[in-house]
Design a protein that fits this description.
- By secondary structure, the protein is of the alpha/beta class.
- The protein is built from twelve helices and nine strands.
- A five-stranded parallel sheet has the order 7-6-5-8-9. Strands 2-1-3-4 form a four-stranded parallel sheet, sandwiched between helices.
- Strand 6, helix 7 and strand 7 form a beta-alpha-beta unit.
- The longest helix has 21 residues.
- The relative contact order is 0.17.
- The chain binds phosphoric acid mono(formamide)ester (CP) and norvaline.
- The site of norvaline (NVA) has 9 residues, from helix 6.
């Protein structure tokens, strides 16, 4: 069964193959060539416990382009929202649909879904990771700066779910990841240990200048992730904003990346996210192409 739960479940070769396919489909779309139809006659259920703009629309459109039928399901409208187990939900949905995409709070829910489903399961964000976002971001890095190995990336701010997927990507693809996170905001220690054991070049610092010095990509994300409202993040992370001063310390051809949605004036200044170095809408577009390649890979295993 070809699930897509976390980047660390894969070899770099497999992920690179998916990225190459994503790029080929993007080019084909650009020249108006017809879409491949690997999902012809297939239905994909999309379960959302949290809001979404990019993920929902890019998956829904991507499934249709590949010949399939998307079924968008809000968790509140499912019996899941009234306490039916994810295990039973997995077995039942597997009778009706050919793949399941899930965005949920608890990472274990996605893992349990994959364990009990008899169709492929795709992780579309949990509190622990966001692998589909990273596939789009890696595609964007390749477009701007070529092969991933040896590139340099700085992550500023909260070591959240997206940051964790960056750690996995850096370890797999051999690019340097310098993370500037204040005390208490680093990614999980066991994930950093896994990455370093794999030979990953991950630098963890509290110093923004150290992280961004001549770096090729500067990345951040919201300070308050979905479901984490009500803490002191805004004060704790105030010194980690990506602004023009920060971008000046990066390489001359550095790009700024953000998975979106963004809060201008908090984690990033308007001048940076709306400026010439911003690649945020390339990332957003690449969600469509990267996820189509992920879906095609899931079904190629049949
Ligand atoms: N980046 C991202 O996943 O955006 P949405 O929350 O809008 O899906
Ligand atoms: N870290 C953010 C990403 C949103 C796409 C969140 O989990 O809310």
């Amino acid at each position: 069964m070809r699930h897509f739960i976390d980047l660390k479940d894969f070899s770099a070769d497999t992920l690179q193959m998916i990225l190459d396919h994503a790029q080929a489909m993007k080019q084909a779309q650009r020249v108006g060539a017809g879409h491949e139809q690997p999902l012809a006659g297939k239905t994909v259920a999309m379960i959302f416990e949290k809001p979404s703009t990019r993920t929902r629309v890019s998956f829904e459109v991507g499934i249709v382009q590949l010949g399939g039928t998307p079924l968008v399901l809000s968790a509140q409208d499912l019996q899941l929202g009234r306490g039916e187990t994810i295990e039973d939900t997995a077995r039942v949905l597997s009778c009706y649909v050919d793949a399941i995409m899930i965005r949920c709070f608890d990472h274990d829910m996605a893992l349990n879904l994959a364990e009990h489903a008899t169709v492929p399961v795709i992780n579309a964000l949990t509190n622990r990771s966001h692998p589909c976002q990273l596939m789009a971001d890696l595609q964007t890095m390749i477009e701007y700066h070529g092969p991933l190995a040896g590139q340099t990336v700085a992550w500023l701010g909260d070591g959240n779910n997206v940051a964790s997927s960056w750690v996995e990507a850096a370890a797999l693809f051999g690019f340097q990841l310098r993370m500037a996170c204040p005390h208490g905001y680093a990614p999980p220690a066991e994930l950093l240990a896994w990455a370093r054991a794999k030979g990953g070049n991950i630098i963890l610092t509290e110093d923004v200048a150290e992280a961004v010095d001549r770096v090729q990509s500067v990345v951040t994300d919201v300070w308050v992730s979905m479901g984490q409202e009500g803490g002191s993040q805004q004060q704790d992370l105030a010194a980690y904003q990506v602004n023009e001063e920060v971008m000046k310390q990066a390489a001359g051809d550095a790009i700024f990346m953000h998975c979106l949605p963004a809060k201008r004036g908090l984690e990033v200044s308007a001048a940076v996210i709306d400026g010439p170095q911003s690649a945020v809408f390339d990332e957003a577009e690449n969600r469509l192409h990267a996820q189509k390649a992920i879906l095609a890979w899931c079904f190629a295993g049949e």
